[in-house]
Amino acid sequence: MTFRIQKIDELSLTDHYHLTDSDECWYFGEYTAYKDWSFSETNRLIKNFKKKMSVRGTCQWHHKLKAIAEVGNLFASAIEPQKLQNSLLVPIPPSKVVGDPDYDPRMRKSLDQAASTLNCQLPISECITQIANAEPDHESANSRLYPEDRANTYQIHQDRIPDGTECIILVDDMLTTGSHYKGAEISIKRLYPQMQVQGLFIARRIHENPFELFDISELL
To answer: How far is CA 128 from CA 8, 24, 153, in A?
Structure first.
């Protein structure tokens, strides 16, 4: 499979119910929910990319590092540095705070890999951080917040946003409901109402079509 960058359009928008038709978000692949790593190349990449930090020192660590490098190269294939003037690439923070043993800087590392692949300095800033530890959405239904509540879990570090920044590109691994993206956007807009905000994701989540193997002719 060859990954290619695609934009969320009116057909795919309905899969991410917190997004609106004014949101500009791009992704490279489709992750099928409730399937394991062997189901698709995107599932393999996401599963390896999201391996926990606790696998360091095990045979699984190599797969995580390889996935980070692969994601970085994907980003590099889509990023045109000359078009990033007055823009900022901002990783959406993981569920754990900096300093926690499970804090995973995978998004930042993948952007650093993109810069290395492009052999240039990219405008990357970790200007959004998590205020407190939270359970990942896929591990706890209780952690699934609405965007307005999600925004309250983020802290914006204005000293990390250069003067003259006009566009912030939020970067994350997977677009599911859009809660994290919209929460980060809301937290930015509270301080910078005129800031343009866009999204860049490795993949968007889809659900397997239950009617894919259904043959209507059998009912005729």
So the answer is: 24, 19, 10
In a domain, 220, yes or no: no
Domain that includes residue 182, residue range: 22-208
Element (H, E) at 61: helix 61-78
Backbone phi, psi, residue 208, to 5°: -60, 135
Beta bridge partners of 25: 199
Q: What is the pTM of this model?
A: 0.91
Question: What is the reported pLDDT for 142?
Answer: 55
Q: What percent of the chain has pLDDT over 70?
A: 91
Number of domains in the chain: 1
Buried b vs exposed e over 171-182: b needs ≥16 C-beta within 10 Å? Answer: bbbbbbbbbbbb
Residue 33 lies in a domain: yes
pLDDT given for residue 175 in this prediction: 98
128: in domain:
yes
Read off the tokens for 210: 């239950």
Q: Tell me if 81 is assigned to some domain.
A: yes
Is the pLDDT score of 92 beyond 60? yes
Q: E strands, 94-194, where?
A: 128-130, 154-156, 167-175
